[in-house]
Amino acid sequence: PSPSSSTPGAEQKEKQYRAHQGFGDHHAGVTGSHTYFYADEAKCDQHMETFLRCIDASSGSSEDGFSAIKLTALARPQFLVRFSEVLVKWRRFFLQMAAEQGQAGRAVLEMKLEVEKLQEALANLGIVTKAESQEWFVGESLGTSSTVDLLDWNNLFDRRTKMSKPLLIPNRQTGQLEPLLSRFGEEEDLQMKRVLQRMDVLAKRAMEKGVRLMVDAEQSYFQPAISRLTVETQRRFNRNRAVIFNTYQCYLREAYSNVTGDVELSRREGWHFGAKLVRGAYMEQERERAAQMGYEDPINPTYEKTNEMYHRCLDYVLEEIKHRRKASVMVASHNEDTVKFTLRRMMELGIHPSEKKVCFGQLLGMCDQITFPLGQAGFPVYKYVPYGPVNEVLPYLSRRAQENRGFMQRVNRERDLLWKEVKRRLLAGNLFS
């Protein structure tokens, strides 16, 4: 769980969501001069049209295909950082209330606020009167419950932010009350509607074409907003099957709580959970930014810890598939041990490849020694095809090549074995047997 607002770590975490001169740059260092800001909404609409063409291409090239979309192409990154900041403040407020009720050591989903105590605390802070806070729970499914957990708390967010009276929460550093949405005005509300409309257009086209949408993960200071927008789309389109997939980066310390929270939400609301699990792509940039801005590094300390996190998250989703069959996962990994782990757990849990609840993904041109045997064994397996301007795609591919340089030795070994087998067959006169 994240540190409560009464701990020093929370102050560091708040810095993570502040704008920074290079925060929107995906391709350069944090201090790079090129920024990823879009001049206007029309640019985002152009990107949506590109994604629509990609959905059409995916539909024509494979059955049950995927098309990846980036929310930083559909919404201004400044908006995503601001929205992330608001969501993190709201979550931290919950953790503060939980700490005051003596629950600081619990896992996030096990924290349950007693409504009576919560209402008293809100009144004592001068945020709302007890009568006003009682209205918060009217008409909610939690209205009959005596406790509120983080998912209930998040569901309250939309209704509270639409109230004419601004919602005030305590600022930890000053001790003063300040508006939750102090940096979130009419322009941000409009951008929120526009990005959800774009996602709606893409999701509808994907359903028509029999394609699933994967929402790519971004840097951690964008990710709370991206995950929230993705969940909103999953609620609408994942009623009968997993059409919208969220991406979880397992190098993040919070990966497991993010996965388990979203799975639990899907259970409560009755939609199909869809996840792509990756290790993560922005480690150096995240660490440099954390050092420059003085907040805690959000990345797991070692590669081994990231592996543990990946397998822990994956196992949780596989168990969900076993018990409810209302979840799907793409194992997006070039790691042979992870693939073997997945195959073993599928067998142990009785998840058959033909169910297509578990699929695999590798980059085009990388790790074919994993992709082809999986496909030949009957597992759904996909090649991820990056596209875009050469000067932007090449740095992306070079980072992937760097990440996978350890596996290149295995490719060379497999190539040598294949060449030996070709020569053996030529000498034996049975080339095609």
From TrEMBL:
GO terms under cellular component: mitochondrial matrix
Predominant subcellular localization, coarse grouping: mitochondrion
Pfam families hit by this protein: Pro_dh
Source taxon at top rank: Eukaryota
Subcellular location: Mitochondrion matrix
Compositional bias of kind Basic and acidic residues: 11-24
Catalysed reaction equations from the record: L-proline + a quinone = (S)-1-pyrroline-5-carboxylate + a quinol + H(+)
DNA damage among keywords: no
Enzyme Commission identifier(s): 1.5.5.2
Chain segments carrying region Disordered: 1-24
GO biological process: L-proline catabolic process to L-glutamate
Cofactor(s), by name: FAD
An annotated Gene Ontology molecular function: FAD binding
Stretches assigned to the Proline dehydrogenase domain: 90-412
Key words of the record: Acetylation, FAD, Flavoprotein, Mitochondrion, Oxidoreductase, Proline metabolism, Transit peptide
Family: Belongs to the proline oxidase family.
Name of this protein: Proline dehydrogenase
Species: Mionectes macconnelli (McConnell's flycatcher)
Gene name per UniProt: Prodh
